[in-house]
C-alpha cells in the first residue's frame, strides 16, 4: 500500500520548485500519449497546468511583496538618513562644503549689490561705512550725508530685498516641486501670479496718484486668494481621484480666468497701462526698510515651515501609499507645504511684482549639482535663489545705466535658454 505524503500547506517560493513537487506537471508527452485519449486524464492534466499557473502567480506576488518591502526600506531611509544604506547616507544630508559655497556666493553677491550703482561711491568708503554699523566698531568712512543716504536708504535695502525675494521664490518653487513630484513646477502654478496681478491692477487703476503701500497689500491678498480658490476647486473636483493632477488643472483654470479679468481692467483704464506694466514686469527698485519689515515675518515663518518639511517631502516623493504605510498623512503634508510656499510667493510678489523662472531655474540647478533630497534642495535653493536674483538685479541696473531693465525681463532671458537645455537633456535621457 502506498503511503501518502502529508500536505503542509506551504506555498513554494519558486514556481520551478513547485513544479518539482507535482508529479503530474513533470509528466512528459511520451507518458501521456502512452496512456491513450482518456477524458479523465486530460482533465487531470488541465488541472495540473492550472495549479502550476496559480503557483507561478503566487510566486510573482511574493516577488512583488519583496519589491514593496524594499521600497518601504527606501522610504524609511529617506525619513531618517541614519537608517539609509551606506551608499545613500551622504546623499540624504546637506554637506558642509555645498552649504559654505552657497553662503559665500550669497555674501559676495550682496556685497557687489551694495558696492555697484550709478552714484559712483568709493569702494573703500562704502566698506568703512558698513563696518561702522557693526556694534562696538567705530570707523570714519569719509562719506558725506548724501552718499550715506544713498548707501543706507537705497542700495542696502534694495540688495536685501533682492536677496529676500529671490530666496522666497526659489524655496517656494522647491516646495511646489516636492508636492507635485515634478521638477518643473513653479510658485505661480496655482494662480498666485494671476491673483497678485489682479489685485495690483485694481489698485493702480482705481486709486489716483501714488497708492503707496496699497499696491503690495492688494497684490498679497490677490495672490493668497488665487491660490485658495484653486485649492478649493481642485479639492472639490478631485474626490478620490488624482488630487495633484486635478489641483494643477484647477490652477490653470483660475489663472486663465484671473488673467482675463486683469486684461479687462487694463482695457477699461488704458491710461494706466505704463504703471501697470512697470509693476507686472517686476523689480526691487522701490524697496525700503519699511517694506523689508513688513515682508520679513512672512518670509521667516514660511521658510522655517518649508525647511522643516524636507524629510517629509522625501517620503512623499515615493508615493502616497508608501507614506501612509509609514504613518504619514500625505494630504496634511501637501496642504502644509502648499500654504507655506504660497505665503512665501505672495509675500515676494507683493513687494517685487511678477519675477518669473526663479522658482524653476534655481531648484533644478541645485538638484543637478548637489542631489535630489529635499533636505538638500530646500536650503540650497533658499541661498541660491537669493544670490541668483541679486546678480539679476545687478545686471538690470547696470546694462543700460543710468536707466534700468525690468527685473522680470532679465530673469526671462535666463529662463528661456534654460528650458531649452533642460528639454535637450531630457531628450537625451529618453533616447538612451
TrEMBL record:
Task: Give Gene Ontology CC terms.
Answer: plasma membrane
Q: Which UniProt keywords apply?
A: Cell membrane, Membrane, Transmembrane, Transmembrane helix, Transport
User: What is the membrane topology noted in the UniProt record heading this document?
Assistant: Multi-pass membrane protein
TM region(s), chain numbering? 99-121, 159-176, 188-207, 213-233, 245-265, 335-362, 374-395, 407-426
Where composition is biased (Basic and acidic residues), the residues are: 27-38
- Region annotated Disordered sits at 1-64
Among Pfam families, the record links this protein to: FecCD
The source's superkingdom equals Bacteria
The record's annotation in Gene3D superfamilies points to: ABC transporter involved in vitamin B12 uptake, BtuC
Please state where this protein is localized: Cell membrane
Q: A biological process (GO) annotation for this entry?
A: siderophore-iron import into cell
Q: Which GO terms describe its molecular function?
A: transmembrane transporter activity
InterPro entries reported in the protein's UniProt record: ABC_BtuC-like (IPR037294), ABC_transptr_permease_BtuC (IPR000522)
The similarity comment for this entry is:
Belongs to the binding-protein-dependent transport system permease family. FecCD subfamily.
How is this protein named in the record?
Iron complex transport system permease protein
What species was this sequence derived from? Actinomadura luteofluorescens
Amino acid at each position: 500500500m502506498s503511503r501518502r505524503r502529508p500536505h503542509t500547506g506551504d506555498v513554494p517560493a519558486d514556481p520551478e520548485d513547485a513544479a518539482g513537487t507535482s508529479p503530474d506537471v513533470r509528466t512528459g508527452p511520451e507518458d501521456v500519449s502512452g496512456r491513450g485519449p482518456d477524458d479523465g486524464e486530460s482533465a487531470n492534466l488541465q488541472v495540473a497546468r492550472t495549479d502550476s499557473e496559480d503557483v507561478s502567480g503566487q510566486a510573482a506576488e511574493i516577488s512583488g511583496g519583496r519589491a514593496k518591502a524594499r521600497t518601504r526600506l527606501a522610504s524609511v531611509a529617506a525619513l531618517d538618513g541614519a537608517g539609509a544604506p551606506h551608499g545613500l547616507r551622504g546623499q540624504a544630508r546637506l554637506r558642509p562644503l555645498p552649504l559654505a559655497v552657497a553662503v559665500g556666493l550669497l555674501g559676495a553677491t550682496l556685497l557687489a549689490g551694495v558696492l555697484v550703482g550709478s552714484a559712483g561711491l568709493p569702494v573703500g568708503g562704502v566698506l568703512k561705512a558698513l563696518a561702522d554699523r557693526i556694534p562696538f566698531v567705530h570707523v570714519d568712512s569719509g562719506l558725506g550725508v548724501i552718499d550715506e543716504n544713498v548707501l543706507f536708504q537705497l542700495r542696502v535695502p534694495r540688495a536685501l530685498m533682492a536677496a529676500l525675494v529671490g530666496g522666497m521664490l526659489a524655496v517656494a518653487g522647491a516646495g511646489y516641486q516636492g508636492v507635485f513630484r515634478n521638477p518643473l513646477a513653479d510658485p505661480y502654478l496655482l494662480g498666485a501670479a494671476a491673483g497678485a496681478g489682479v489685485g495690483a491692477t485694481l489698485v493702480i487703476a482705481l486709486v489716483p496718484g501714488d497708492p503707496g503701500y496699497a499696491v503690495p497689500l492688494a497684490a498679497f491678498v490677490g495672490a493668497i486668494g488665487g491660490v485658495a480658490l484653486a485649492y478649493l476647486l481642485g479639492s472639490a473636483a478631485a474626490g478620490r481621484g488624482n488630487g495633484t493632477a486635478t489641483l494643477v488643472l484647477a490652477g490653470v483654470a483660475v489663472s486663465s480666468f484671473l488673467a482675463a479679468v486683469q486684461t479687462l481692467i487694463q482695457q477699461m483704464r488704458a491710461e494706466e497701462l505704463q504703471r501697470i506694466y512697470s509693476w507686472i514686469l517686476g523689480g526691487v527698485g522701490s524697496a525700503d526698510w519699511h517694506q523689508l519689515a513688513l515682508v520679513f515675518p512672512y518670509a521667516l515663518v514660511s521658510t522655517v515651515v518649508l525647511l522643516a518639511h524636507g524629510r517629509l517631502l522625501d517620503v512623499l516623493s515615493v508615493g502616497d501609499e508608501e507614506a501612509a504605510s509609514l504613518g504619514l498623512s500625505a494630504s496634511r503634508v501637501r496642504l502644509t507645504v502648499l500654504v507655506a510656499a504660497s505665503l512665501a510667493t505672495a509675500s515676494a510678489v507683493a513687494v517685487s511684482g511678477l519675477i518669473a523662472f526663479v522658482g524653476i531655474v534655481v531648484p533644478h540647478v541645485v538638484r543637478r549639482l548637489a542631489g535630489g533630497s529635499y533636505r538638500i534642495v530646500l536650503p540650497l535653493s533658499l541661498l541660491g535663489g537669493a544670490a541668483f536674483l541679486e546678480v539679476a538685479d545687478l545686471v538690470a541696473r547696470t546694462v543700460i545705466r543710468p536707466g534700468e531693465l525690468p527685473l522680470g525681463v532679465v530673469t526671462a532671458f535666463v529662463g528661456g535658454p534654460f528650458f531649452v537645455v533642460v528639454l535637450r537633456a531630457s531628450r537625451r535621457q529618453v533616447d538612451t
